Every structure is written in structure tokens, then in C-alpha cells.
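Module 6 notes. Inverse folding takes a fixed backbone as the condition and produces residue identities as the prediction. Think of it as a translation problem where the source language is geometry and the target language is the twenty amino acids. Below is one complete input and output pair. Work through it position by position during the lab.
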């Protein structure tokens, strides 16, 4: 028997058996007991942690910049799977949910996307395949995300159960299926950083969380909401909302009560909840933010992800990334200035360093009459690099030019209707981050 099979039998089967009890058809995350309470580990309350790390709710507080490595499962002929554009959308939505809630966590794409072309794997099985894949294909220094066509669990004498995603707490891998809602990856990454479902154990007479936020565990001064449910007191207790919300995310369980006879009054927009319409989920609470930041601080790569790392200034990234191919090009609108950066990508290996040194942008012209345009490049908050700029109309190169700190304008004479790509490639290497501002404007040239 191979080591991997023995490892699976001894380690994963118990975990997966437990998952079958607690998991559900939406998210296959295994619900383990709450071990991450601050009162036990840090001697402070969870709601005090944000103050401890000088967190301000009113402004963006980026504490960690975290790379994401994607593994895309396709058919043996290479068909199916996500495109680079769709991968970019996952990253953009992930950053949207985490930035609008000021979580202090930002994410960027590692450029070495891996494609697995195998008819036997493009629809991963939850028990027999998924755990092996998160062990076999694992990259250090980042969050590993595996995207499959279908994510299912076969059941004896029953129809297979499909999942939208899972976080495997044993391997640290996140798996999601194609076509899931925009909040699904944010939900699974929430599990990665220690969050539980607010409806956790809601039907249990012993472990269920009461609606009251002040009810104490008998014989103690500890509130039940600190130990039951998701272990957080600012996430209202709730039943499983898939059954008790409509497509507009209106709560319909008006007569559903906890074991003490109190009617539930849940929020219906929490990212870790199970509203029927997943697009309604857009909120993390302050205690969820605190727990994620605390969990991030305990991760093996926390020091390298932290903005306080001496090399952190090398890993800054802009809102438009990933944008290193035509497929992932970011649109720039006329007379609108954008700021872009070139930066290093943390890999967890000293000898292996990826660098973001190419940006693709595009703009569209609808006028049929040829016009003159100019592309302005200028300094940002970073060192302005030497660059090669290539302009394409669709796939045809129409201009190439080298740019330096003294020559920052590109004239485009008499160009008409069409889609134009701008490829910007950094030529020189700096130890520090480099960047630029760019604007496209119509102008009359002599």
C-alpha cells in the first residue's frame, strides 16, 4: 500500500466521515468545534482584538497581501474549465467583498495558473478525489484554490449531492465548482481564515446557539454566543437560511424559534450564511473581521504576507490586476487616469520569484471618423520604470515605442473605430516596486 493511500485511510477518512454529518449541499466545509476563542488563547475578548492591532473601521486597513494560486480542472482535450478572464473575475469579486468590509486582507493572482486536463478529474468527487488533489497539487506561500466543473459526493442508493465549494481544513485547500455565485470564493476563504457558519448546529438541542446575546453558560460568566454557533456574538443566531429566505433575501421564518422559544431575527446578508440567493451576501461583521485577522496572524506565511514585512513594499498591487494578457486586459475609458503597478509575487521559495512585469489595457472607439489620440504616461507614487509599449488594433500591431522618464507620450494619428490594446512591459529591474499613471485622450495633432 502506498504512503498516500495509507495517509488517506488514517487521516482523511475520519475527517470526511465527520463532514458527512455536518456538511450540506451548498458548502462541504467540515464543522469542527470552536478552538479559536481569544479568551482562551490570548487572554482578551474577540471584540477587543481590532483595537489591539490599531484597526480603524472607517478607512482601508490593509494588513496582509495574500497570493492566490489557481488550479483549473478541464477535460482531457483541454476543453472546459475557467478562462483567464473568469479567473480574474473571481479575484476581483474576492477583493471587492474583503475591501468593502475593511477586512484588512487583499488578494492577488499568482501568474503560474495550472491546468489539469483529465476526464477523470474535471468533475471532482468530494471523498475519493478532492483530498488527494489538495495534497498532490499544493504550492507553498499562498492560498491554493482548485476549480472543477462539478464538485459532487456519491451516495449509496441516492442521487449524488453537488457542492458549490469547500475548505479542507486538513490541507488548507479551497475547492469551488464552475458557475458558482460571486460570493462563494469569499465564503470559502472566510473558512480558511477561521470563520464558521452562523447557523452551525442550529438544530441541535445541546450545541444550538440561542438568539439571546446575553444568555450565559450555566455556572459561568461566559455568554453562550461565544461558544455555540459560530462562536461570535455580533453575528445573530440563525437557522439555515436556504429554507427560510426568498430570492430577494427576505427572511420568511417568522415562526422559527430557538430551543428557548425565542424567534430568530437573523441578518440575511452575511457572507458566511446560506441565503437562498447567494448574491445577497456581502457583509462581514467586526468580530468576523477580527477573527480573520487573528487567524491570518497565525498562518505560516503571515510574516511574509504582512505589510510590516521589510519586503512588503515589493508586493503592492493595483485594482486592475490580473492584467498580464489580452484576455485579462483592463478597460481604460477616455480622459480617465488609472494607476498601475509592477511588483513581485511572493512564492514562499527564496530561489523562485515571480514578477509582474507586463500589463494589458484596452480602449474602444465607436466613431467611424479617424481621430488623433494621445496616451499620457506619468509618475505614480512609485519609481517610474523604463517600458516598452505596444499598441494593437485587435490582433494587429500598429505601433511600438520605448518609454523612459523623459519621454512619456505616445501619439496615435488618425485611428478609427475598433478595439485597441495597450501592452506595457517593464524593461528594467528594481528592488522596489515600480508604477505609472496612464490616460488616453482625444487631441488634434499637427
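Target side of the pair, the amino acids:
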Amino acid at each position: 500500500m502506498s504512503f498516500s493511500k495509507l495517509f488517506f485511510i488514517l487521516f482523511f477518512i475520519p475527517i470526511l466521515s465527520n463532514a458527512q454529518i455536518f456538511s450540506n449541499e451548498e458548502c462541504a466545509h467540515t464543522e469542527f468545534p470552536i478552538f479559536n476563542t481569544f479568551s482562551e488563547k490570548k487572554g482578551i475578548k474577540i471584540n477587543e482584538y481590532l483595537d489591539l492591532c490599531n484597526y480603524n473601521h472607517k478607512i482601508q486597513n490593509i494588513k496582509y497581501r495574500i497570493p492566490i494560486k489557481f488550479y483549473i480542472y478541464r477535460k482531457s482535450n483541454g476543453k472546459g474549465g475557467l478562462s483567464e478572464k473568469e479567473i480574474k473575475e473571481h479575484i476581483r469579486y474576492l477583493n471587492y467583498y474583503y475591501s468593502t468590509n475593511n477586512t484588512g486582507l487583499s488578494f492577488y493572482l499568482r501568474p503560474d495558473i495550472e491546468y489539469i486536463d483529465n476526464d477523470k478529474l474535471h468533475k471532482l468527487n468530494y471523498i475519493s478525489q478532492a483530498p488527494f488533489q489538495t495534497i498532490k497539487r499544493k504550492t507553498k506561500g499562498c492560498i491554493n484554490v482548485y476549480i472543477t466543473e462539478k464538485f459532487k459526493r456519491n451516495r449509496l442508493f441516492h442521487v449524488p449531492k453537488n457542492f458549490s465549494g469547500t475548505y479542507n481544513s486538513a490541507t488548507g485547500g479551497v475547492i469551488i465548482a464552475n458557475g458558482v455565485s460571486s460570493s462563494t470564493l469569499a465564503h470559502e476563504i472566510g473558512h480558511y481564515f477561521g470563520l464558521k457558519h452562523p447557523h452551525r448546529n442550529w438544530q441541535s438541542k445541546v450545541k444550538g446557539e440561542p438568539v439571546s446575546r446575553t444568555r450565559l453558560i450555566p455556572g459561568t460568566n461566559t455568554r453562550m454566543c461565544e461558544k455555540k454557533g459560530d462562536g461570535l456574538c455580533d453575528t445573530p443566531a440563525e437557522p439555515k437560511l436556504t429554507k427560510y429566505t426568498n430570492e430577494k433575501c427576505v427572511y420568511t421564518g417568522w415562526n422559527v424559534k430557538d430551543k428557548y422559544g425565542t424567534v430568530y431575527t437573523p441578518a440575511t446578508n452575511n457572507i458566511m450564511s446560506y441565503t437562498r440567493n447567494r448574491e445577497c451576501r456581502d457583509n462581514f461583521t467586526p468580530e468576523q473581521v477580527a477573527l480573520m485577522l487573528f487567524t491570518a496572524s497565525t498562518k505560516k506565511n503571515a510574516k511574509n504576507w504582512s505589510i510590516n514585512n521589510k519586503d512588503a513594499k515589493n508586493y503592492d498591487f493595483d485594482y486592475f490586476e490580473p492584467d498580464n494578457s489580452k484576455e485579462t486586459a483592463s478597460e481604460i475609458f477616455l480622459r480617465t487616469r488609472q494607476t498601475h503597478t509592477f511588483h513581485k509575487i511572493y512564492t514562499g521559495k527564496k530561489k523562485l520569484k515571480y514578477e509582474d512585469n507586463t500589463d494589458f489595457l484596452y480602449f474602444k472607439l465607436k466613431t467611424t471618423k479617424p481621430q488623433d489620440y494621445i496616451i499620457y504616461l506619468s509618475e505614480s507614487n512609485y519609481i517610474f520604470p523604463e517600458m516598452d509599449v505596444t499598441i494593437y488594433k485587435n490582433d494587429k500591431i500598429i505601433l511600438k515605442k520605448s518609454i523612459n522618464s523623459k519621454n512619456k507620450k505616445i501619439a496615435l494619428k488618425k485611428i478609427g473605430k475598433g478595439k485597441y490594446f495597450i501592452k506595457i512591459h517593464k524593461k528594467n529591474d528594481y528592488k522596489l516596486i515600480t508604477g505609472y499613471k496612464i490616460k488616453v485622450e482625444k487631441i488634434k495633432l499637427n
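Reference fact for the lab report: DSSP finds nine helices and 19 strands in the chain.
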